[in-house]
């Protein structure tokens, strides 16, 4: 069925099946679609669910086709072929949204974003199965990236065209977006699902999406489902369909300041921990480094209402070019920046966030970094005071010293699992479901989630948890400062040498014999596993869920396959450089017969150490 349009409104009556074949012939004009029907949630005939009870007998009565080039979004001719599944990054979607980096063509365009948002809507419909004429509501927020607002508007077009109510939160944090699916009693804020537009700490030209319902972040299978739906929607759009105009979308989108609700909850949590004292942090000097991401709110909206002095805080203004340093608590330059700020301002504590505030780290008054194993140890100490004997779930690259600290000093149980914050969180949830109590799931990257906070990986809440402890101790003794926190991890045995070497797999090498890099990587790990068994100086970890972990020479190494890339990261920790050399040499001898591996970095380490 075809409809020719030329600057006028055309009405046409179609059935749901016919609507799928509706094609707009625009003759160079860009047209937008306004949908009026007895059935909600269907825009463009793209989100029909054949097995949905509420839609089985539905009939679309009228479609108004409004042509207005000045108000419309993307021209049909701008569509290019896209491999949607390549946008998947585990439980996130990531792509290139801005031109400017050689060799990185843009693949996260407005039409792609519209299709992904509409696909999330279809997925959400199947998940929620709303009754009657109920329209589902989705919130959209973004970090400070320069492509954020363009993608926010594109996502809004996709959702509104599919019949959803949309609330734009603007600049927000990832944890706040999940939190908005849990908020009740706020008619303007409660939502059925949420989308966070972010690419974490990646460069300025990248962007992506994270999705949430009240049950938490979506998993890998959900993301694959959404991308497959998006591919189908995109094909229909590129075959002649179009999305609503910006003007029509703006009339259907609400805007709200949800961050005020979210930060108010954080402030209340600290006050409760201190016995409902209004300003439990009064007199403490705490500096914040937001790295020009979305975390600048923490100084004025959380710390200052609690009485803290925040002078000397830096890079709080959102700037998607990240001109000062990468917003990443694992980055050396970033940690040096917050450490310098603490020492220069003689502050009691420093706090640093990543771009979308789902990761964090701290620095004490002496300049000692509290990140990676130290942050895990401190969080474990706090949680085990509240829940004695509980299991602490971490990723695979945590140290042997951390295990000893958690189990022998704190009386807890350390469950070392896989890399990937969603893997760690899901494992903690699984353990609880089979009767093994766990209250903390945390990665060395700074992702940390607590059972009490709905298993949300929230960098701001992690820092609030530290502040809760500090505030409660100061309520008993006002002279106490942040040193009380670092005192809690006294006895944590830390390696003298800790490094990661990435062994890249050349996917074009003949040794792959047409197979995938993943198959090749698994073959390397199998060979390493067999080789280690014959070395009396080395011992495999008795319980291991990822790669091959080996102890020896007073330290350990772990070789694993990257979650997403053709890389085998090799982590080594040892008391001395000499011990690290022995571990590196053992790993090298086991993998040197695989010619598709780039061993140059490992060879350099072994030769120089």
* Number of helical stretches of at least 4 residues: 17
Number of strands: 28
Mean of residue pLDDT values: 86
Proportion of beta-strand residues: 15-25%
Query: What class do helices, strands and sheet pairing give?
Result: alpha+beta
Overall morphology: globular
Distance between the terminal alpha carbons, to the nearest Å?
A: 72 Å
Give a quick account of the main beta sheet: strands, pairing sense, barrel closure: 8 strands, mixed
- Uncertain stretches of 5 or more adjacent residues: 1-77
Radius of gyration: 26 Å
Helix content: 25-40%
Overview of this protein structure:
By secondary structure, the chain is of the alpha+beta class. It is built from 17 helices and 28 strands. Strands 6, 7, 8, 9, 10, 11, 12 and 13 form an 8-stranded mixed sheet that branches. Strands 24-25-26-27-23-28 form a 6-stranded antiparallel sheet. It has a 5-stranded mixed sheet with strand order 19-18-20-21-22, with helices on both faces. Helix 3 (148-161) links the parallel strand 8 (137-142) and strand 9 (165-171). The radius of gyration is 26 Å and the shape is globular. The model is unreliable at 1-77 (pLDDT under 50). One of its GO terms (biological process) is glucose metabolic process. GO terms for molecular function: metal ion binding; phosphoglucomutase activity; phosphomannomutase activity. Keywords: Carbohydrate metabolism, Glucose metabolism, Isomerase, Magnesium, Metal-binding, Phosphoprotein.
């Amino acid at each position: 069925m075809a409809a020719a349009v030329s600057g006028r409104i055309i009405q046409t009556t179609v059935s749901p099946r016919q609507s799928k074949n509706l094609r707009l012939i625009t003759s160079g004009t860009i047209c937008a679609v306004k949908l009026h029907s007895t059935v909600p949630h269907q825009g463009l005939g793209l989100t029909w669910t054949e097995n949905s009870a509420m839609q089985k007998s539905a009939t679309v009565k009228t479609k108004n086709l409004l042509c207005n080039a000045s108000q419309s979004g993307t021209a049909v001719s701008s569509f290019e072929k896209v491999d949607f599944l390549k946008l998947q990054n585990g439980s996130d979607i990531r792509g290139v949204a801005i031109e400017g980096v050689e060799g990185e063509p843009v693949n996260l365009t407005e039409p792609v974003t519209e299709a992904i948002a509409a696909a999330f809507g279809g997925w959400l419909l199947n998940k929620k199965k709303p009754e009657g004429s109920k329209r589902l509501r989705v919130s959209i927020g973004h970090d400070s990236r320069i492509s954020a607002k363009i993608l926010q508007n594109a996502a809004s077009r996709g959702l509104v065209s599919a019949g959803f109510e949309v609330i734009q939160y603007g600049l927000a944090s990832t944890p706040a977006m999940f939190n908005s699916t849990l908020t009740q009693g706020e008619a303007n804020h409660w939502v059925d699902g949420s989308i966070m537009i972010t690419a974490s700490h990646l460069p300025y030209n990248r962007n992506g999406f994270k999705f949430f319902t009240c049950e938490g972040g979506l998993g890998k299978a959900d993301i694959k489902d959404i991308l497959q739906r998006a591919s189908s929607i995109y094909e229909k759009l590129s075959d002649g369909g179009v999305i609503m105009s910006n003007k029509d979308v703006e009339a259907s989108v609400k805007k709200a300041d949800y961050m005020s609700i979210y930060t108010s909850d954080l402030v209340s949590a600290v006050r409760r921990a201190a016995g409902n004292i209004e300003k439990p942090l009064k007199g403490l000097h705490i500096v914040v480094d937001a790295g020009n991401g979305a975390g600048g709110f923490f100084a004025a909206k959380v710390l200052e209402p609690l009485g803290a002095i925040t002078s000397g805080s830096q890079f709080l203004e959102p700037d998607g070019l990240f001109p000062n340093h990468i917003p990443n608590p694992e980055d050396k330059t970033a940690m040096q920046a917050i450490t310098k700020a603490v020492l220069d301002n003689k502050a009691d504590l420093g706090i640093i966030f990543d771009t979308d505030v789902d990761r964090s780290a701290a620095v004490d008054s002496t300049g000692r970094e509290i990140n990676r194993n130290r942050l895990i140890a401190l969080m474990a100490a706090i949680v085990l005071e509240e829940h004695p004997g509980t299991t602490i779930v971490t990723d695979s690259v945590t140290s042997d010293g951390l295990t000893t600290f958690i189990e022998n000093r704190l009386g807890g149980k350390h469950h070392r699992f896989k890399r990937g914050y969603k893997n760690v969180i899901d494992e903690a949830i699984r353990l609880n479901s089979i009767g093994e109590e766990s209250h903390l799931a945390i990665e060395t990257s700074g992702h940390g989630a607590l059972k009490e906070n709905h298993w949300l990986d929230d960098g701001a809440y992690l820092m609030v948890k530290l502040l809760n402890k500090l505030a409660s101790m100061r309520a008993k003794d006002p002279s106490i400062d942040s040193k009380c926190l670092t005192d809690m991890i006294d006895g944590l045995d830390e390696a003298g040498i800790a490094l990661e070497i990435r062994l890249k797999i050349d996917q074009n090498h003949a040794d792959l014999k047409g197979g995938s890099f993943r198959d090749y990587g698994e073959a390397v790990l199998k060979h390493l596993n067999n080789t280690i068994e014959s070395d009396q100086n080395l011992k495999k970890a008795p319980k291991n869920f990822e790669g091959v972990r080996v102890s020896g020479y007073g330290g350990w190494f772990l070789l694993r396959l990257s979650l997403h890339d053709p890389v085998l990261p090799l982590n080594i920790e040892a008391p001395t450089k000499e011990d690290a050399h022995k571990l590196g040499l053992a790993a090298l001898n086991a993998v040197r017969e695989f010619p598709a591996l780039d061993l140059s970095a490992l060879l350099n380490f072994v030769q120089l150490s």
